[in-house]
Amino acid sequence: MEKKLIHIFEQQFKTTPTHIFKAPGRVNLIGDHTDYNNGFVLPMAINRYIWLALKPRNDQEINVYSKNFDAFASFDTHKPEDAACRGGSRTARGGDNAWIEYIKGVAWAIQDAYPDKKLSGFDAVIYGNIATGASLSSSAALELVFAKAFTELANIKISAADIAKLAQKAENEWVGMNCGIMDQLVIAAAKEDDALLIDCQDLTTTNITLPHDAAIVIMDTNTRRGLVDSAYNERRQQCEEAAKLLGVDSLREVTDEIWESKQHLLSYEILRRASHVFQENLLVLDTIEAFKNNDLHASGEYMKRSHKSLQQNFEVSTKALDTIVEAACNSVGCFGARMTGGGFGGCAVALVKDMYADDFIAQVSEQYEHDTEIKPNIYLVKAVHGTYNLH
Ligand code: GLA
After folding, report:
1. Residue 184: which of 20, 349, 25 has the closest Cα?
2. Fewer CB within 10 Å, N or C, the chain?
3. CA-CA distance, 262 to 272, in Å (whole number)?
4. Ligand 1 contact, 276 CB (< 6 A)
5. What's the gap in Å between 15 CA and the centre of ligand 1?
6. Rg value, the chain, Cα
7. Substitution site in 143, 175, 178, 232 for ligand 1 pocket (most atoms within 8 Å of beta carbon)
8. Contact indicator for 107, 76 with CB cutoff of 8 Å
9. Would you say the CB of residue 143 lies under 6 angstroms from ligand 1?
């Protein structure tokens, strides 16, 4: 891959790159729509990446060629754009060259946090094999690979948690997507072979060993939906409303007593949103316990419960996601499956006995295509190092 990248760079810029960085995508095993409620999540970084080859320039220009989009975009690190446009105005995710906004946002967030360090320019090529808009966090990977480049070139020493916060700030305030911290933090901090438990209250992370003889399978429905950001932001507001009505700062703080004594204050819709978050946090902790005991059956059951709650209470699943999850749960070697990430299309994830992985993939592919007439993309992944943990 690196050779290919260097070759593309040489074609574009007629010189050789001096640095190569990469950032992985992620899949979330359990704990969705809990991060922005200060709850628990259990994602892992996966062996799908965005690579960045670059050569510093003597000015402040950033020139980026995206091989995937076959598009070129530039900006000045000192004026990534008129600051007055910040916040909520750049959600043109599907628009031409929308990808450059993530990079500008990261430059802006880092420059804002380190006003004494002047970010210098570079020529760059990016290429990735993380499916986009598929809930595998290609945007967060893009943010992190540039965050790594900007900070390293400017000699800024920064922790994985702090760089994740700056990347999240770029996405919240520059791009206008009100995401939580999960994607950025796991992509920054993950460790090879492990999933990462993140306590989103204080950002502490714990490496969680995956059960041996378990295979993690990504099941891409090959459906994508627009307007995801607005539906996502709406769910987030509903959770905040629920917390307010229950008299807590975040849904993380809801105890059994609060839940029993105050849930009557919530409307039916808000009650279902809050109930999802409350249960999902417990399911993350239960899954970790099951992983520790190498109890794949129990872990799989928790994944199924989580999917049901995302479908019925949080209402972020789709027909395609439900169909692929059902096909998975009925296929050979499967302990459990669920949609992963924000929802509204994209991918689901399955926990499968490793010796059956190939048969499982063949069965789910056939069943899903039979039911939907859409060809899915189903593949095994492994847990890899995050960007700030690469040697
Ligand atoms: C998206 C967001 C994350 C998280 C998930 C849902 O991936 O970027 O912060 O909220 O959705 O769990």
Report:
1. 25
2. C
3. 14
4. no
5. 39
6. 21
7. 232
8. no
9. no
Mean pLDDT of the chain: 94
- Taking each helix axis as running N to C, give the angle between helix 99-113 and helix 160-169, from 0 to 180 degrees, rounded to the nearest 10: 120
The structure tokens listed for 196 are 């990462």
**Positions of E strands within 140-267:** 194-199, 204-209, 214-220
- The CB-side HSE value for 122 (13 A sphere, CA atoms) comes to 26
Pairwise CA distance, residues 340 & 303, whole Å: 10
Distance from C-alpha of 194 to C-alpha of 63, rounded to nearest angstrom: 35
Closest C-alpha to ligand 1, atom 8: 179
**Cβ of residue 182 lying under 6 Å from some atom of ligand 1:** yes
214: left (phi over 0), alpha (psi -120 to 50) or beta: beta
Summarize pLDDT for 181-192 with one digit per residue, the tens.
Answer: 999 999 999 999
CA distance 376 to 366: 9
Give the rounded percent of residues in the chain with a pLDDT score beyond 90: 90
In angstroms, what is the span from residue 181 Cα to ligand 1's centroid? Answer: 8
- pLDDT tens, residue by residue, 77-93: 988 764 434 444 444 44
- Residue 280 in contact with residue 34, Cβ under 8 Å? yes
Nearest to 29 by CA among 4, 46, 53, 48: 46
Q: How many helical (H) and strand (E) elements, i.e. helices and strands, does the chain have?
A: 11, 11
Write the CB contacts of 274 (distance below 8 Å, at least 6 apart in sequence): 239, 242, 243, 246, 251, 254, 263, 266
Distance CA 275, CA 84 (A): 38
For 246-271, the pLDDT digits (tens) are 999 999 999 999 999 999 999 999 99
Residue 357 tokens, joined: 């992985």
Kindly state the average pLDDT of the residues 308-320: 98
Ligand 1 centre to CA of 342 (Å) is 5
